[in-house]
Automatic annotation (TrEMBL):
InterPro entries: NUDIX_hydrolase-like_dom_sf, NUDIX_hydrolase_dom
Source organism, top-level taxon: Bacteria
Taxonomic lineage: Bacteria, Bacillati, Actinomycetota, Actinomycetes, Streptosporangiales
The name this protein goes by in its record: NUDIX domain-containing protein
Organism in which the protein naturally occurs: Nocardiopsis sediminis
Gene3D superfamilies the UniProt entry points to: Nucleoside Triphosphate Pyrophosphohydrolase
Pfam families (UniProt xref): NUDIX
Domain Nudix hydrolase, chain residue ranges per copy: 1-130
Amino acid sequence: MIDKVAWVRVENGRILSTRSRGKDVYYIPGGKRESGESDVQTLLREVEEELAVSILPATVAFLGTYEAQAHGHPDGVVVRMSCYTGDYRGDLAADSEIEEVVWLSHADRGRVSPVDQVIFDDLNASGLLM
C-alpha cells in the first residue's frame, strides 16, 4: 500500500495536474508523508515543493479517500490517496521534480494515473469536472 496525500484544485471545470520529469502520465499534486507528519502538514509541504505556492491552512477541507492500482508498480500494489481541497497564495509554477503543470478535463482521464481516474470520475459525477 502506497499512502499519499493530494491537493484537488478544480477551477472552471478543470483539475490541476502535474507531470514529473521522466513520467508518462499526469498526477494530482501531492505526495507521501514524512515521519510524524499529519495529512495537512504533508499537503502543505508537498504543494509548496512541487508548485511554489502556499496552501492556506484555514481553507483546507477533506474531499475523500480513493484507492486504485499504483501506476508503474506490479499488480496488486495499491495507492491510497487522501484528498483535500484548499485555497492557495502565490503563482502556480513547476518546481522541484515537476516538469509540467496543466489543467485537465474529464476527457483527459486517459492521461492520468489509475487512482486519479477514479477521482476524475467522482468529480465528473458530482458536476465539478467537465
